[in-house]
TrEMBL record:
Any Gene Ontology CC annotation: cytoplasm
GO molecular function: 4 iron, 4 sulfur cluster binding; metal ion binding
Alphabetic keyword roster: 4Fe-4S, Electron transport, Iron, Iron-sulfur, Metal-binding, Transport
Protein name, entry field: 4Fe-4S binding protein
Amino acid sequence: MALIITDECINCDVCEPECPNGAISQGDEIYVIEASLCTECVGHYETSQCVEVCPVDCIIKDPDHEETEEELRAKYEHITGES
């Protein structure tokens, strides 16, 4: 699954620089995650770095973008050009 940021986001700016895929950006009201770029850090780290640093635990799995570990790995390989 890709991740989403809920409206509990306090715009603290700590998640954006942690994303190795550049999937997080400032939205109109809160930070947002581009599902097509989010691999939950598969291929980069053992855990989702944005979730690790979020002080309010507002980053959750997006039920509208369910993906398996293999699909996330394939997305990582596509984004990075690795295989």
